[in-house]
Amino acid sequence: MTDAAAAGSSESSQNATGKLVILMVSAFIDMLGMLMILPLLPFYAEKLGAGGAIVGLLVASFSVAQLLSAPYWGRFSDKYGRRPALIVSLVASAIAFVVFAYADSLWLLFVSRIVQGAGGGTVGVIQAYVADATRPEDRARALGWLSAATNAGVSIGPAVGSWLRPLGAEWPGLVAAVLCVVNMAFVWRYLAEPRSATERKADHAQRGSSRTAVARVITHPQQPSSRLILIYAIAIGAFQGTTAVLALFLAWKFGVTELSIGYFFTYMGVLSVVTRALFLGPLVDKFGEARLSRIGLALLTAGLVGMGVAPNIPTLAIAVGLLPLGTAFTFPCVTALLSRVIESSQRGLYMGVQQTYGGISRVAFPVVFGIAYDRVGQASPFFISATMVLLTFWLARDIASFAPRKARA
Question: Domain 12-191+206-401 adopts which CATH fold?
Answer without folding.
Answer: Growth Hormone; Chain: A; (1.20.1250)
